[in-house]
Amino acid sequence: MMHMTFYWGRKVTILFDSWKTDSWISYFLSLLACFLVAVFYQYLEERRLRFKLLSVASKRPPPSDGAALGTPLLISKLGGRNWAPSRFAGAILFGIDSAIGYLLMLAIMSFNAGVFIAVVVGLGVGYLIFRGGGEDVVLVDNPCACA
């Protein structure tokens, strides 16, 4: 039976039918795995943003004729440097990062409070370690939490 409300307990199924915990040791190891994956998610997100910042910095400046500002939807990105290998690498990194984020969301949807706490604390610790540094990096990115 799947829980539809938060519950405390060591018996939980996380993501797959084969990932079931039935003892305290397996439960704590599963919580540790969720915690580490959440920290790794923040690491990948930091690498992706850093990679994007580096690739944006290496691009040539846009044309100064002002046409690009007036008609942003009519500008084609199919030509020139936009198909550089760094763009493909960024897209692959974004896909991996998004997949891990969705898997973390699905793990939380087990409605086990321990899994929820492990993922949220892992995201916070990962942010503190990898993204909460003293550097001021300004990069306009998608504000959507799932992107």
TrEMBL record:
<comment type="similarity">
    <text>Belongs to the copper transporter (Ctr) (TC 1.A.56) family. SLC31A subfamily.</text>
</comment>
<protein>
    <recommendedName>
        <fullName>Copper transport protein</fullName>
    </recommendedName>
</protein>
<keyword id="KW-0406">Ion transport</keyword>
<keyword id="KW-0813">Transport</keyword>
<dbReference type="GO" id="GO:0005375">
    <property type="term" value="F:copper ion transmembrane transporter activity"/>
</dbReference>
<keyword id="KW-0186">Copper</keyword>
<dbReference type="InterPro" id="IPR007274">
    <property type="entry name" value="Cop_transporter"/>
</dbReference>
<feature type="transmembrane region" description="Helical">
    <location>
        <begin position="88"/>
        <end position="105"/>
    </location>
</feature>
<keyword id="KW-0187">Copper transport</keyword>
<keyword id="KW-1133">Transmembrane helix</keyword>
<keyword id="KW-0472">Membrane</keyword>
<dbReference type="Pfam" id="PF04145">
    <property type="entry name" value="Ctr"/>
</dbReference>
<dbReference type="GO" id="GO:0005886">
    <property type="term" value="C:plasma membrane"/>
</dbReference>
<feature type="transmembrane region" description="Helical">
    <location>
        <begin position="111"/>
        <end position="130"/>
    </location>
</feature>
<feature type="transmembrane region" description="Helical">
    <location>
        <begin position="24"/>
        <end position="44"/>
    </location>
</feature>
<keyword id="KW-0812">Transmembrane</keyword>
